[in-house]
Amino acid sequence: MRPNRLKLRLVALALLLILAACSGPAVSSTEPGTKQANHAKTATPGVPTMQPGSRAARPIPRPSFIPERLVIPAIGINALIESVGVRSDGGLATPTRNPWDDVGWYGLGPHPGERGSAVIDGHLDRPGGYPAIFWRLRDIQVGTYIQVINSTGQTLHFRVSRIAYYTPDQAPLQDIFGNLGGTYLNLITCAGDWIPDQHQTTLRLVVYAIFV
Predict the structure, then answer these.
(1) Is residue 1 exposed (0-12), middle (13-18) or buried (19+ Cβ within 10 Å)?
(2) CATH code, 177
(3) DSSP helix/strand/coil, 145
(4) Number of domains, the chain
(5) 20 to 30 A Cα–Cα from 36, which one of 18, 58, 125, 203?
(6) Range of 190's domain?
């Protein structure tokens, strides 16, 4: 097995918690079979929030395209990008500077524009159930264009190729994090109903986009 493929598979395993649990309730998505949930706590994009004292793996700087802003004009998203790594418990660290308005790029994986799957996640809603940055991600459509911009204004363009909803135990981690068949950008957030006794939502929304 090639070292880079092995690394990606190990990363996918370590990132299981990204798609395994949300730490707060979320408004249900618009796909059939879901209902609107009550809001009492905070929804996350399918990963545990950073706990005090926890230590996250830090992304290793590389001389590549460093994403600074995610822009999706069709659904009104214009967000600063924070580079995040993996917590000591295996979950993806979430944005900390502006948790509800920023998005988190998994800086230990491919950079946007590199071969492989660059992954960005964001919160669906915030305390009290008010919209967070990826509130309208469920409104995106196949063919929508996504822009990723760096500090010099260089812009990469991606086009949405597929939209999928998964239950936590059916999310195809290799497809989301380890697809080396092209140059991709995948966006993740919570969806479905909030399950209080499980502290997670029933579904995860993954938006797949390809470099154009």
Answers:
(1) exposed
(2) 2.40.260.10
(3) strand
(4) 1
(5) 18
(6) 3-211
